[in-house]
Amino acid sequence: MERVLKFLTRRGNVFTILTLIGVAVGLGLGIGLRNSNGEAWTKRDAMYLRLPGDLFLRCLSGIMLPLIISSLVSATGSLDLSVSKKIGSRALVYYLSTSAIAAILGSAMVHFISPGTRSDDQNSEDCGGEGGSTIDTILDLLRNVFPPNIIAATHQNTRTEVTQNASIPFEDRDVNVRTVEGTNMLGLIVFSLVLGITLAELKEVGAPLLAVFSATGSAMLRITTLIIWAGPLAVCFLISGSLVEQGEVSEVFSNLSWYTGVMVGAYLLHGFVVLPILFFLLTRTLPFQFIRNISQAIFTAFGTASSSATLPITLKCLEENHKMDTRLTRFLIPIGATVNMDGAAIGVPLRVIYIAQLCGRSLSFGELVSITLTSLAASVGLAGIPGVAMVVTMTILGSMGLPVSKIAFVLPVDWLQDRVGTVVNVVGDAFGAGIIGHLSKADLKKIDDDNLTSTIVEDQKEVEEKSPSAELVN
């Protein structure tokens, strides 16, 4: 009994338990309110119910940019350049490998189980579509890596729009590359990394500016600590607000039971089987304690459906619960929250192949490979906000000649897919930080030893300069 009370009253456990209660109450409240009058709520009423949660997300979003930029600059600037390259290379290999595994897993499960062929909604009528080009998505990714205005990048990004006119060949249609509202996170990350590396090379000259970024990052984390105590209540209202908007929940899951089962199964298999096994193989440590340490971030990710909004809590879990080096967490997690989107890599091919099955279209091996690779490429740099994977799905549907309008078939469970996918994103980032932290222990120890040696030498010089013998020589 004493051990149970000690567990329940520990600061980190209290918040995790409160968040779990918030998730459970939100699910119960949403289903209960939805069934109270037998029909879905209006969008306005649902908006009122979500308001506390929306305010919470706005607070977290408000500190997200200064936290990410300051953390990246200070972490990169405090690391030796050779060590930064090593850690960055390890991170790149991990991100690409796990995202590739996720995309292949999602494509394979939906292809072999074929939930679309088992659905009552299967209909090959009106399944023609106007093809597009996924090259525009990749080109936009490259353009956003190099923003022309770093200030504008905080609220604008680049997007290519092609004039839709079936009478004109695709190659001859007007192409409009324009700026749209939305943070260009990739461009900001590249700028922050370059600035941090430059400040590290400048050494003493860059130290004052580096100290400013370090202090800013610490201040943002302190503010985050205050904000996240509203998390359990916010999560409750966000989940209940999403549920009351849905149609009859039992009917939705009945019609989409096969798709929902494959979708949830793929996410859980990747996030809580594949990644933990990878963690165990590379660190020789059982993953259960690690999962427990990041449980607070997992529940928050499910409630907010935003890996960006969960980022400060992921940092807090890794630094306070798992005792990870802040130089690593503040370098890896902001990057991972932008470029490591395992949830999207699974979810996008799931939607596309399922819709193709509904249309009665048999996809060739080449088309399956194309969908998988495009999903993998498009998942890199996705904004960590709710619903963004749906935009990529629509782009790929167009490129495959499938009707974008058929996306409506998966919309009834999109609220669930968004949340479970976000959990996988956050878990993937956290496991990546844990693995890379383990592999980088020797490199970080070498930096600490070199810094200690340098400090001792400088102290000895100061003592010698102040000694009486030195004064006599002078």
From TrEMBL:
<dbReference type="InterPro" id="IPR050746">
    <property type="entry name" value="DAACS"/>
</dbReference>
<keyword id="KW-0813">Transport</keyword>
<protein>
    <recommendedName>
        <fullName>Amino acid transporter</fullName>
    </recommendedName>
</protein>
<dbReference type="GO" id="GO:0015501">
    <property type="term" value="F:glutamate:sodium symporter activity"/>
</dbReference>
<dbReference type="GO" id="GO:0015175">
    <property type="term" value="F:neutral L-amino acid transmembrane transporter activity"/>
</dbReference>
<comment type="similarity">
    <text>Belongs to the dicarboxylate/amino acid:cation symporter (DAACS) (TC 2.A.23) family.</text>
</comment>
<dbReference type="InterPro" id="IPR036458">
    <property type="entry name" value="Na:dicarbo_symporter_sf"/>
</dbReference>
<keyword id="KW-0769">Symport</keyword>
<feature type="transmembrane region" description="Helical">
    <location>
        <begin position="91"/>
        <end position="113"/>
    </location>
</feature>
<dbReference type="Pfam" id="PF00375">
    <property type="entry name" value="SDF"/>
</dbReference>
<dbReference type="InterPro" id="IPR001991">
    <property type="entry name" value="Na-dicarboxylate_symporter"/>
</dbReference>
<keyword id="KW-1133">Transmembrane helix</keyword>
<keyword id="KW-0812">Transmembrane</keyword>
<dbReference type="GO" id="GO:0005886">
    <property type="term" value="C:plasma membrane"/>
</dbReference>
<feature type="transmembrane region" description="Helical">
    <location>
        <begin position="256"/>
        <end position="282"/>
    </location>
</feature>
<feature type="transmembrane region" description="Helical">
    <location>
        <begin position="331"/>
        <end position="356"/>
    </location>
</feature>
<feature type="transmembrane region" description="Helical">
    <location>
        <begin position="12"/>
        <end position="35"/>
    </location>
</feature>
<feature type="transmembrane region" description="Helical">
    <location>
        <begin position="223"/>
        <end position="244"/>
    </location>
</feature>
<dbReference type="GO" id="GO:0005313">
    <property type="term" value="F:L-glutamate transmembrane transporter activity"/>
</dbReference>
<feature type="transmembrane region" description="Helical">
    <location>
        <begin position="55"/>
        <end position="79"/>
    </location>
</feature>
<feature type="transmembrane region" description="Helical">
    <location>
        <begin position="376"/>
        <end position="397"/>
    </location>
</feature>
<keyword id="KW-0472">Membrane</keyword>
